[in-house]
Design a protein that fits this description.
41% of the residues lie in helices and 15% in strands. By secondary structure, the protein is of the alpha/beta class. The two termini are 12 Å apart. It binds flavin mononucleotide. Flavin mononucleotide (FMN) binds next to helix 1.
């Protein structure tokens, strides 16, 4: 089973990226988790631009990766109680490609933030967006990594907090079961 991970943060040493880096070690047997191509170079969505220039190659690459995957895990911070603009822009682009790849696609959500709520408010907005994209959004168990600064290694590259890792293991096992069903 192939699962694609999309990171909502572009920040060097992002806590959410540290989670993405750790996911391959936490997935169930028979499940591979790979980072998606970056959306950093996507232009800000503009329907006029799309009409004149078509879909940029970077957008097509991400759409193809989603299409090929059996499921997608989106791991993102919360910006101003919602979805970071870069990720929202990426989803807006993906929603406008022919043969929209999120239709019927199982998607699980994870978030990390430096505060107490671990990005929970962002997840509810992201869930709502994915409903319009006709994705099959996984429900429970949920993963919120709060106080994220204290839960990564000294290089900021991997998630080391055992209770957060266990929460992710449980979610990925249940998500893989749902994909199989
Ligand atoms: C523009 C901006 C808005 C933010 N808004 C929130 C917020 O609403 N809730 C929250 O818990 N943290 C918020 N933060 C703090 C993030 O949790 C923190 O920057 C975190 O490290 C971002 O994730 P990353 O390390 O993966 O980039 C915000 C940060 C930025 C830069």
């Amino acid at each position: 089973m192939k699962i694609l991970t999309i990171c909502g943060s572009l920040r060097h040493r992002s806590f959410n990226r540290a989670i993405c880096n750790t996911l391959p070690a936490l997935g169930p047997d028979g499940c591979t988790l790979e980072n998606a191509p970056s959306f950093a170079a996507f232009p800000v969505y503009n329907a006029d631009f799309q009409e004149s220039n078509g879909v940029p190659a970077e957008v097509t690459a991400l759409a193809e990766a989603i299409r090929r995957a059996d499921g997608v895990v989106i791991v993102s911070p919360e910006y101003n109680y919602s979805v970071p603009g870069g990720l929202k822009n990426a989803l807006d682009w993906i929603s406008r490609v022919p043969d929209q790849p999120f239709i019927g696609k199982p998607v699980a959500l994870q978030s990390a933030a430096i505060g107490m709520l671990g990005g929970a408010r962002m997840q509810y907005h992201l869930r709502q967006i994915l409903v319009f994209l006709d994705a099959r959004v996984f429900n429970k168990p949920e993963v919120f990594v709060n106080f994220a600064k204290t839960k990564v290694d000294t290089e900021g590259e991997l998630l080391v907090d055992e209770s957060a890792r266990e929460a992710i293991r449980s979610q990925l096992a249940a998500f893989a079961d749902q994909i199989r069903r």
